[in-house]
């Protein structure tokens, strides 16, 4: 036992040194508390060609959650059980009948190892998600009229032409009883699944979030499957933008509040143009009884902005992690840049501290109906938005270089890929630094590989790339988080 503790102490000490003398320069203050980014301390990969137990291409990380009871120290570092949530499947040429699923991983982490094997992730199992009757779910885009009528305690649900519930899963949160909340882009809805993947319930958000075309709900995202018709009009007139649904979701540390956030502004809130989609919305549900969730708050969140030449652009958020009932980590990024894309260099990838503590609660007001919070991207003067404070820069050149990675330059496998969409927090379990944690961030590789197989069909992505599932891990000090 003493040998194990000494070994761990050495690992922790090395990781703290590697985190660099720049740690003080990465400290930020929010609400009178100091948060410290101590640097990138680990990298790992799972190969793009990996297949799950159903023989289909592994789906990377649109969302991620961890069983906190499984996280422990080992002789060489740490070990725990994680769940990665893939999205709706390989769909660069239209959606397919990919069955929604969860991928269970065993992760071993050795902080401070500067090779790209500090995180070793092993696929342990894959669980299919089903509806309440046990039928598989599908990634196919719903068409006009693609609605399963409300029944058996469920609201109207997005439905594909094959009769299955259509799900584009983007975020996942694990409850203490082993069940999961999964957020969706089609609805956008929130679903609860049992530990073995059966749908238990569904949360329909306020009307302001529901995509409307010609006065009726239309859950399509303009990614029709084989033989299906494209939606008319192409974009919803109100509600969530195509492919911009509930991208981020988090359960607060006490397990009583579920927060879920749109990827960008609704159509009526300025989401009809990239330059005006600045203000998105976050919903807070009381889930003390997860079978009877209650909406208790709704806030407006300003998305990060960045410069591209003389233009000011708006990032889209990709994931949420809760530090308290009012403070969160928000993962956001630009689009179209990175390995496998035409553009090599990202202009923005970052994790911000999101504080909703003083933001206006608009739940139950006219803003939940037809009244926009930010018409043409200009915030209604009656609303105080949440605040963002920069915390982790995923594109930090010094951090990446220590592990042989970079942002830009040669567009190869060591250039970060485009989409970083999953985040989880685990304790450093360090008695000398009880408020230190590891922030795991994982990419969504869009199933891009040269040796793919899904929904009964082999495929080869036209980019020529094999984008690995990649884990990046930062050590941070989070004074408000109690685990």
Radius of gyration from the alpha-carbon trace, in angstroms: 21 Å
How is the largest sheet built, in terms of strand order?
1-2-30-27-26
Distance between the ends: 24 Å
Main beta-sheet strand count, sense and barrel state: 5 strands, antiparallel
Helix count equals: 2
How many β-strands, per DSSP? 30
Q: Would you tell me the structural class of the helices and strands?
A: mainly beta
| Percent in helix | under 10%
Low-confidence stretches: 1-24
Shape: globular
Number of domains: 1
- Which percent band covers the strand fraction? 35-45%
Overall residue-averaged pLDDT value: 94
Detailed description of the structure:
With 483 residues, this protein is mainly beta. The chain has one domain (2-477). The protein contains two helices and 30 strands. It has a five-stranded antiparallel β-sheet. Strands 3, 4, 5, 6 and 7 form a five-stranded antiparallel β-sheet that branches. A four-stranded antiparallel β-sheet has the order 10-11-12-13, with no helix packed on it. Strand 20 and strand 21 form a beta hairpin. The protein starts with a helix and ends in a 6-residue tail after the last strand.
């Amino acid at each position: 036992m003493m040998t194990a503790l000494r070994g761990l102490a050495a690992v922790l000490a090395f990781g703290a040194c590697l985190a660099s003398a720049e740690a003080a320069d990465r400290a930020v203050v929010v609400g009178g508390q100091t948060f410290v980014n101590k640097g990138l301390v680990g990298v790992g990969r799972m190969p793009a060609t990996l297949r799950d137990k159903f023989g289909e291409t592994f789906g990377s990380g649109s969302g991620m959650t961890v069983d906190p009871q499984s996280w422990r120290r080992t002789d060489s570092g740490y070990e725990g059980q994680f769940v990665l949530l893939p999205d709706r499947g390989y769909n660069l040429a239209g959606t397919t009948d990919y069955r929604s699923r969860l991928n269970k991983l065993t992760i071993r982490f050795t902080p401070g190892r500067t090779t790209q094997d500090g995180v070793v992730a092993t696929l342990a199992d894959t669980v299919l998600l089903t509806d309440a009757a046990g039928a598989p779910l599908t990634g196919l885009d719903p068409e006009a009229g693609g609605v399963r009528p409300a029944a058996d305690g469920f609201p109207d649900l997005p439905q594909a032409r094959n009769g299955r519930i259509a799900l584009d899963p983007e975020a996942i949160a694990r409850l203490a009883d082993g069940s999961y909340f999964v957020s969706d882009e089609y609805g956008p809805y929130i679903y609860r699944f049992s530990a073995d993947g059966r749908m238990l319930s569904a949360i329909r958000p306020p009307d302001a979030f529901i995509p409307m075309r010609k006065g009726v709900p239309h859950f399509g995202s303009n990614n029709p499957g084989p033989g299906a018709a494209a939606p008319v009009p192409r974009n919803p007139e109100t509600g969530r933008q195509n492919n911009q649904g509930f991208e981020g979701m988090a359960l607060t540390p006490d397990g009583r509040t579920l927060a879920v956030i749109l990827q960008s502004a609704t159509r009526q809130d300025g989401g009809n143009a990239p330059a005006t989609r600045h203000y998105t919305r976050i919903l807070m549900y009381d889930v003390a009884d997860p079978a009877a969730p209650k909406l208790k708050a709704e806030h407006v969140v300003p998305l990060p902005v960045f410069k591209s030449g003389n233009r000011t652009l708006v990032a889209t958020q990709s994931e949420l992690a809760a530090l308290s009932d009012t403070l969160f980590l928000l993962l956001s990024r630009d689009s179209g840049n990175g390995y496998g894309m035409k553009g090599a260099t990202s202009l923005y990838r970052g994790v911000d501290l999101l504080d909703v503590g003083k933001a206006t609660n608009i739940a139950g007001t006219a803003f939940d109906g037809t009244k926009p919070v930010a018409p043409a991207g200009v915030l209604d003067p009656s609303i105080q938005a949440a605040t963002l404070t920069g915390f982790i820069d995923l594109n930090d050149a010094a951090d990446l270089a220590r592990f042989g990675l970079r942002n830009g330059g040669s567009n190869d496998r060591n250039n970060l890929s485009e989409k970083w969409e999953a985040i989880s927090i685990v304790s450093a379990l360090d008695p000398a630094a009880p408020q230190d944690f590891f922030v795991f961030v994982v990419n969504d590789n869009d199933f891009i590989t040269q040796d793919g197989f899904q929904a009964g069909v082999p495929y080869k992505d036209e980019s020529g790339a094999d984008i690995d599932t990649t884990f990046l891990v930062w050590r941070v000090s989070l004074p408000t988080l109690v685990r």
